[in-house]
């Protein structure tokens, strides 16, 4: 227990700087805005801040398209501001983890500008350049080097008029993929990472890091019914991914072992692979973000075609991940981030039972074994954006989805708006609601994305004033993890796997046990865990989201309880 890494009992808070706090009235959040709100993080008690990208960027994908890895975009501030933030967080005993986006750069990054400048450029091979498909003319439909679709709709290839060759972009055309087969690319990335560590940052959240190894030669993927083929089999955890991450660890992390945190964002990662990535003996990364649980409400038509979550599916998924990483490796625990809809709207009830469902969802998440991540506003019970017009959306994924869906003529405007209202990434990107003043205290100017009308009641000031609030509940959950080793390290056992309403599990470490219960519905639900837990031998309720203990056999709407024994 004593030699477990520090991050097993840490909680990470994600800041999406564009939407956190604006200090200069331009309507966009910035670093000085964060500096002005550190009290909020201190009171919450989080250990680490993960900062979404603040690097120089044309902002095609809100900073995930980087044109200079070693500078701050003026929209967010300066390098001096960032140094000040590192210092201020450290002074409060918190760490700062930067986003590391190295599957791709911006097409305006000097590396790509150089690579594009001619076929003979020294950096030509730093990206994936390919001629048109054999026998076809550049630009002709179907002439793309492979049939791969991009994550943001359309082809994953863009034709460069000058050289008449295509470059690969798994995301937007302004995010060309780096060629990790080239050792110079990897060394340039590692040098940049070392520069940040020397500046004082405490680690990295690595954007789509399991996509950097592509199987060569590149070839067509299966067509599942859409316009484009699915290339994911050739780039998800590709042939050299473990080699690359082990190399990165040696080249970047080896000199600063204990202090740092390395978390790999990994769409499509399997449990078997995650075990390899996070087994400390292999020295690759500390933990990964997997996507299984946030795909359970996707329908056959993809993420915008939603279906209701079945609680038994969620239990099966979390249960497998808990078991799979029990004796080697480590889990990350999250509901929300800047790419996912707000969990209280998605799996809870953001109306009548907003407080109850948000606190229940947080309780269930934080009591699993793994490191919990809180996304800005989640601790306030912030909801989805409730946009009803196409004009409100700004996210590139949403905009590309709208234009592709319209071009194909498959869905009505109402259906499209419905899908966006449920799943658009903009749902989590509306400004943080600080108080009931104009624009929720986020900015004195015009916010870049509309503030939700519910800010008059859903805001940090109101949450701080109410001891039962989502905010104070998060504070208690974080404190519990800090104080009680069973939360961080206890064994996990899922109970009631077939129950569609009540989520239940135990945690056990030595003589100590916890029982965690959560009602995933707005009705009273009976439960029976007598096989696993006796309430009469000294169980004490350590945390709940109702004012009184309630009945030992029924949960009230969205109720959560944590019991301790002995
Ligand atoms: O996201 C990668 C990812 O796989 C998805 O979550 C993606 O955002 C998409 O919505 C799938 O529907 C990371 C970043 O978190 C995201 O913000 C970036 O847009 C993306 O990589 C590209 O850098």
From TrEMBL:
CDD domains, alphabetized: AmyAc_SI_OligoGlu_DGase
GO-annotated molecular function: alpha-amylase activity
Gene3D superfamilies the record matches: Glycosidases, Golgi alpha-mannosidase II, Oligo-1,6-glucosidase, Domain 2
UniProt entry tagged with the keyword Hydrolase: yes
Pfam families registered for this protein in UniProt: Alpha-amylase
Keyword Hydrolase in annotation: yes
Domain Glycosyl hydrolase family 13 catalytic: 14-429
Annotated GO biological process: oligosaccharide catabolic process
Keywords (A to Z) from UniProt: Glycosidase, Hydrolase
Matching InterPro entries: GH, GH13_cat_dom, Glyco_hydro_b, O16G_dom_2
NCBIfam families in alphabetical order: PRK10933.1
Family: Belongs to the glycosyl hydrolase 13 family.
Protein name according to UniProt: Glucohydrolase
Gene name, Swiss-Prot/TrEMBL: agl
């Amino acid at each position: 227990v004593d030699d477990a890494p520090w991050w097993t009992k840490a909680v990470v808070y994600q800041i999406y700087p564009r939407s956190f706090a604006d200090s200069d009235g331009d309507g966009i959040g910035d670093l000085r805005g964060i500096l002005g709100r550190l009290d909020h993080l201190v009171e919450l008690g989080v250990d680490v801040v993960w900062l979404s990208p603040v690097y120089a960027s044309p902002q095609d994908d809100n900073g995930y398209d980087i044109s200079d890895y070693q500078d701050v975009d003026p929209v967010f501030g300066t390098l001096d501001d960032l140094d000040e933030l590192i210092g201020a967080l450290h002074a409060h005993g918190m760490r700062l983890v930067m986003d590391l986006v190295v599957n791709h750069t911006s097409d305006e990054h000097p590396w790509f500008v150089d690579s594009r400048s001619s076929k003979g450029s020294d950096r030509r091979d730093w990206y994936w350049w390919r001629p048109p498909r054999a026998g076809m003319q550049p630009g002709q439909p179907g002439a793309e080097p492979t049939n791969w679709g991009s994550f943001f709709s359309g082809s994953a290839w863009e034709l460069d008029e000058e050289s008449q060759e295509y470059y690969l972009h798994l995301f937007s055309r302004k995010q060309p993929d780096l060629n990790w087969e080239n050792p110079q690319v990897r060394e340039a990335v590692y040098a940049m990472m070392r520069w940040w560590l020397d500046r004082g940052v405490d680690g990295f959240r690595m954007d789509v890091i399991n996509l950097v190894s592509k199987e060569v030669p590149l070839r067509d993927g299966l067509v599942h019914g859409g316009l484009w083929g699915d290339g994911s089999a050739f780039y998800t955890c590709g042939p050299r991914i473990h080699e690359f991450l082990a190399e990165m660890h040696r080249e970047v992390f080896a000199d600063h072992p204990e202090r740092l945190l390395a978390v790999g964002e990994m769409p499509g990662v399997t449990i078997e692979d995650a075990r390899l990535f996070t087994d400390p003996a292999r020295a690759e990364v500390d933990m990964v973000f997997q996507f299984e649980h946030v795909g359970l409400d996707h329908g056959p038509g993809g993420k915008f075609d939603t279906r209701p979550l079945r609680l038994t599916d969620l239990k099966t998924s979390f249960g497998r991940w808990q078991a799979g990483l029990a004796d080697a490796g480590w889990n990350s625990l999250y509901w929300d981030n800047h790419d996912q809809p707000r969990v209280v709207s998605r799996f809870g009830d953001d109306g009548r039972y907003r407080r109850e469902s948000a606190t229940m969802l947080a309780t269930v998440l934080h009591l699993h074994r793994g490191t919990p991540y809180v996304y800005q506003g989640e601790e306030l019970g912030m909801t989805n954006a409730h946009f009803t017009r196409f004009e409100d959306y700004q996210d590139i994924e949403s905009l590309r989805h709208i234009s592709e869906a319209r071009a194909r003529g498959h869905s009505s405007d109402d259906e499209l708006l419905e899908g966006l209202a449920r799943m658009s990434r903009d749902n989590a990107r509306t400004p943080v609601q600080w108080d009931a003043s104009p624009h929720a205290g986020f900015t004195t100017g015009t916010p870049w994305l509309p503030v939700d009308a519910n800010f008059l009641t859903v805001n940090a000031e109101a949450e701080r004033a109410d001891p039962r609030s989502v905010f104070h509940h998060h504070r208690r959950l974080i404190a519990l993890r800090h104080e009680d080793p069973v939360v961080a390290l206890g064994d996990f056992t899922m109970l009631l796997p077939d129950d569609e309403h009540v989520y239940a599990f135990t945690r056990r470490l030595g003589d100590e046990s916890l029982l965690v219960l959560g009602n995933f519905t707005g009705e009273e639900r009976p439960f029976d865990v007598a096989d696993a837990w006796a309430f009469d031998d000294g169980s004490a309720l350590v945390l709940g989201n109702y004012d009184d203990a309630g009945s030992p056999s029924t949960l009230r709407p969205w109720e959560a309880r944590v019991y301790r024994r002995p």
